[in-house]
Amino acid sequence: MKRKSSSLWAVFAMPTLIGLISVLGLFAALLGDGGWDVLAWVGLGLPALYSLRGLSR
Hints:
By secondary structure, this protein is mainly alpha-helical. The chain has helices at residues 8-31, 35-56. Helix 1 (8-31) packs antiparallel against helix 2. The model has no long low-confidence stretch (mean pLDDT 89).
């Protein structure tokens, strides 16, 4: 059987994106209140939802 070759970007694209969203959420949580809190909740909630979606499969 021939294995399909995957490029480095194809393998690490989604984990990199999830990591960047998490970092932005953490940074927004440090900056202040109001709109920053909303951005922090979204930035930290999306990676949690992606993780739960991956575990449920």
